Amino acid sequence: MLRQLSAQGLRDAQVLRALGAVDRRRFVEAALARRAYEDTALPIGLGQTISKPSVVARMVALLRGGLTDPATGKLGRVLDIGTGCGYQAVVLSHVADEVYSMERLRGLHEKVRETLRPLRVSNVHLILGDGMEGFPSGAPYAGIIAAASGVAVPPAWVEQLAVGGRIVAPVDVRGDGGQALVVIEKTRQGLTHAVLEPVHFVPLKSGIS
Ligand code: SAH
């Protein structure tokens, strides 16, 4: 999996190391274990999917392009929207000081607690809640990353982002279901937006259930 990611052009050594440190097989059902290292999204229950490793790597690398501490090479506090099976949250735990990971589906949120227990990751904080509202108690965030796509980036994320930080999220940019990866950077002068490559994520929904 890592060889394939480097061949695809992923150059961020810290991201490669983080993906190398997290065994993706632990996050998928036993029946899918054989496919855990393929570069593909896989079902995780309740109609949701674990993201493709190449997309996780790409998005985490983009996030690291923002407010990374030059001394440690790490991000400070990061907000992860859409915990799903917890894979991306644990990858993030290797490149950030603290990870606040939000999931709106109770079933997935509870399952992740079980998945994470043996991994002993002390800097991932799992929150059952509507990620569209963000998580003000952890703000300001060095980075905000989302694994579910809405028609726009929720204003709460922009408010909870630190100056110098980045939001990396899929957005339904044309309003017709065609998504693209969007990077928003908060500078002292205001916000910058970049629309990058097409992506395909599950929808961002409001409320918990
Ligand atoms: N990063 C995850 C990907 C999970 S798919 C992983 O590594 O497995 C995206 C997740 O976003 C789904 O579990 C979905 O339930 C969740 N989601 C959608 N809208 C949300 C919202 N408003 N708040 C929190 N989670 C949300």
From TrEMBL:
Q: Key word Metal-binding present in the record? A: no
Is the Oxidoreductase keyword given for this protein?
no
GO cellular component terms, alphabetically, are: cytoplasm
GO terms of molecular function: protein-L-isoaspartate (D-aspartate) O-methyltransferase activity
EC no. given is 2.1.1.77
- Which Pfam families does this one have? PCMT
Biological processes per GO annotation: methylation; protein repair
Give compartment(s): Cytoplasm
Give start-end of the signal peptide.
Answer: none
What are the entry keywords?
A: Cytoplasm, Methyltransferase, S-adenosyl-L-methionine, Transferase
Q: InterPro entries in the record, alphabetically?
A: PCMT, SAM-dependent_MTases_sf
Q: Which PANTHER family does the UniProt entry name for this protein?
A: PROTEIN-L-ISOASPARTATE O-METHYLTRANSFERASE, PROTEIN-L-ISOASPARTATE(D-ASPARTATE) O-METHYLTRANSFERASE
What family is this? Belongs to the methyltransferase superfamily. L-isoaspartyl/D-aspartyl protein methyltransferase family.
Name this protein carries in UniProt: Protein-L-isoaspartate O-methyltransferase
Q: Species name for this entry? A: Ottowia cancrivicina
